[in-house]
Amino acid sequence: MKSIYTVLLLVIGFVQSSCGQNIKGIVKQIPAQLPTQIPIGQKPSLTNDEVVAGLREALQIGIKNAVNQSSVPDGFLGNTQIRLPFPPDALKVKDKALQLGMANQVAKFETTLNRAAEEAVKEALPIFTQAILNMSVTDGFAVLKGGNGAATTFLKNQTSQALYNAFLPKVKEATAKVSLTAQWNPLISKYNQAMALTGGEKINPDLDAFVTERAIAGLFTLVQQEEDKIRQNPAARVNDLLMKVFGSL
Description:
With about 250 residues, the chain is mainly α. It has one domain (about 50-245). The chain is about 70% helix and about 0% strand. It contains ten helices and no strands. Helix 2 packs antiparallel against helix 5. The longest helix is centred in the first third of the chain and has 28 residues, at about 1-30. About 30% of the residues are buried.
């Protein structure tokens, strides 16, 4: 009997020793610190690449909506925020024309000026889209956290001259299509005739340049409004990227 008890004690001791070693081995495999879960309500982390992609996405949505708003009849003419006025450096022409009883011609010219912008911006989408894709952003977080309109302002500062150069030919086509010069010529002719009699300075502004500058400025105004919607209204964040990037603010 004693021998049986001795054997049993040896077996129990071996099992306890093995279990202890196995437990120690398992403990060693457990990480010193378990992964930290993101607390409920905490905003996900972002990379700069994600932020830049989100900014570009917001601007592309903005320019698409801006073109859709402004390229229809009265898109410029009926919007006081972007409506093209009589060229400021030719206000003397307007004043003289009104003195000569040409109010109808002045009104037709101003309408046609805006029709030229509405026609030209139909070609703006690919030009602006390429500018957005080429936009170099080294610190997307700075632009993202820059407040309302920061991305639009950044795009404007980086691409204005390139946009002007690319957009000007489209404007020239548009002004020809709506016969802007035909509306302008009677006004400038009357004015210059009057100046010839009084010895005043003749004026003939570059209408294509004027329409180009004002059309681009008008589009940027609308793009900023669209950007601000995305910043302020979660419902305007139409995909996961926008929700992640602008939801981090």
